[in-house]
Amino acid sequence: MTDSLVRAPETDRTHATPEQYAERYARSLSDNDAFWLEEARRLDWVTAPSKAGNWSYDPVDIRWYDDGVLNLCHNALDRHLDARGEKVALHFEPDDPESEARTLTYRELHREVVRIANALKAIGVKKGDRVTIYMPMIPEGTAAMLACARIGAIHSVVFGGFSPEALAGRIADCESRFVITADGGLRGGKPVPLKDNVDAALERPGAGVEAVLVVRHTGCEVNWTEGRDFWLADKANDADCPCEEMKAEDPLFILYTSGSTGKPKGVLHTTGGYGVWAALTFHYVFDVRPEDIFWCTADIGWITGHSYVAYGPLLNGASQVIFEGVPNYPDAGRFWDVVDKYGVSIFYTAPTAIRALMREGDGPVTSRDRSSLRLLGTVGEPINPEAWRWYHEVVGSGRCPIVDTWWQTETGGIMITTLPGAHDMKPGAAGKALFGVEPVLVDGEGKLLEGAAEGNLCMARSWPGQARTVYGDHQRFVDTYFSTFPGRYFSGDGCRRDEDGYHWITGRVDDVINVSGHRMGTAEVESALVLHPTVAEAAVVGYPHDIKGQGIYCFVTLVAGEEPDDALERELKAQVRSEIGPIATPDLIHFTPALPKTRSGKIMRRILRKIAENDYDSLGDTSTLADPGVVDALIAGRRNR
Ligand code: ATP
Ligand code: MG
């Protein structure tokens, strides 16, 4: 069932036909340097590069467009001013639908960025300095990133939902001496004390921050440290602020990964390659046309917010929506209210949001118009076919293609996806490789697997948007990504490639369960559970089992209003058995009101694994957990078994 094709509507075949894709893909590999030099022309360069890739995976040294010189803020803003200065760059939708929305044209956003760039200079920021951005989802957040790019400072955006402790760790790790924040934020009607959190973070030893730039947003009361804290409005000015000339390999930003699998890594991206990659992937994957209104719901604190809020859309001169709030406030129809309000045509979100909204039923969706939508996207986790179908049929009314985009903080942009128009879709499969991307599957010993196969997902060659290092710890970069399978980039994910060359992400390789010698991805078992009408979400892990080696432990949450009982437990076991086979029959089903998630909404399986193993003392780094209370409830539930 999950392999069934969903045809791409003919009307969307304007961008890349199947033939164009095949031809361009083949050339992107066979004539790699020429292809990437051509693609570099998407950007304006002060000095155009004479060569594209110059990289090695052994030793690890990755460079692209090495002799090129450019500025990405110029590319995102200045160069558009003549042709589309009055075009909308950002529609800002506040948390409270009754509050005033704001729209900024390219010219207005440019002005805002220049003002912030001047403020940064005024507090002493110089080229190469790290600047921590800890902001709500407001236009100034994106503008602060571009202001850093403008003057050659390296931004490190920390999600505004992180605790002072997590913020302090990220400030210390990259030795950032400057912070940009807001007085406060609002999410789902609740105030977020951003400035207070910064104050608390800076009280910790080791945070050598010299200056904090504060944006007035909610107007809440804040404490003030004279000589360190400055209102943005007092430092900003409209003086001329030329774009700094940056070498292609000058760092653009540091971004800490979600922390799903361990201590977050400060992934470093550079200017030229990342810029080309963000521009190209946005253009092809979202099939963008001049009249489109794009909306990516990710926070700028995640890589998705970097590549598909800040850089991709603006490098392409597109119009987009940015949203301060959450999907279920004031009610579960908010996303679709916003879609209708701005006429959103391309909508990009995460499986966690789709599953949460699906749990509330169709009503909040079908009561809204949504006729402006023409393309839907998802990223962040494998999407269960069940959730995919709901997204396709209910949200998209069966009209809109879905791009299921697989990528990582480390890849800088989308790597594997179907292209609207060029490829038919398979619910639950990411699809095919984008141009210049060469995914390969290898077995545990590193042997290359051909044709339809399942194994470890690696990349056989570099691409411009690839991360260059882990900030301050190149050895960790080498060890994490290049040592398991020498000569290849190892993603850490498992993947099945089918007869049509589509990629099905099976979950993190660390999460693979070995039941009586059979290796099993967790995603498949989870999808079988979610098929049941009462199940909202499922997370599956292995745990020690006397006979089988590992048993299958399932954490399950139910849709609103449903109660667990023994009959349901039996039904769920039977369902997995009939969907996948007897070998996949769950050993334990643990009903729980909630699952532990990272603040980007991903299920933290490593914690669930510890709970399943009855090992509560070594839960590891929990600083990226959205709600630590969930863990106590799970432990109590486990003890009762
Ligand atoms: P950490 O690296 O700190 O453990 P993380 O891997 O969750 O955190 P990200 O870089 O935000 O941090 O996420 C990338 C991962 O998300 C991928 O490796 C993959 O496991 C998962 N992922 C992203 N998109 C998809 C998708 N479309 N289908 C399946 N999995 C996806
Ligand atoms: Mg990762």
Architecture (CATH level 2) name of the domain at 1-86 and 329-509 = 3-Layer(aba) Sandwich
Strand content: 15-25%
Strand order of the largest sheet: 12-11-8-6-7-14-15-26
Structural class: alpha/beta
Q: What would the principal axes of the Cα set say about the shape?
A: globular
Distance between the termini: 34 Å
The level of helicity is 25-40%
Q: Which CATH first-tier class of the domain at 1-86 and 329-509 would you pick?
A: Alpha Beta
The CATH superfamily name of the domain at 1-86 and 329-509 is ANL, N-terminal domain
Low-confidence stretches: none
- Beta strands, count: 33
Number of helices: 20
Give the C-alpha Rg.
24 Å
Stated plainly, the CATH topology of the domain at 1-86 and 329-509 is called: Rossmann fold
Main sheet summary: 8 strands, mixed
Bound molecules: adenosine-5'-triphosphate, magnesium ion
Give the rounded overall mean pLDDT.
94
What are the defining features of this structure?
641 residues; alpha/beta; Rossmann fold; GMP Synthetase, Chain A, domain 3; eight-stranded mixed sheet; seven-stranded mixed sheet; 20 helices; 33 strands; binds adenosine-5'-triphosphate; binds magnesium ion
Question: Would you write up a description of this structure?
Answer:
Among the domains are: 1-86 and 329-509, ANL, N-terminal domain (Rossmann fold), CATH 3.40.50.12780; 516-637, 2-Layer Sandwich (GMP Synthetase, Chain A, domain 3), CATH 3.30.300.30. 54% of the residues are buried. The radius of gyration is 24 Å and the shape is globular. It is α/β, with parallel strands linked by helices and 641 residues long. It contains 20 helices and 33 strands. Strands 12-11-8-6-7-14-15-26 form an eight-stranded mixed sheet, with helices on both faces. A seven-stranded mixed sheet has the order 5-4-17-16-18-19-20, with helices on both faces. The model has no long low-confidence stretch (mean pLDDT 94). The structure holds adenosine-5'-triphosphate (ATP) and magnesium ion. Residues 257, 261, 408, 492 line the site of magnesium ion (MG).
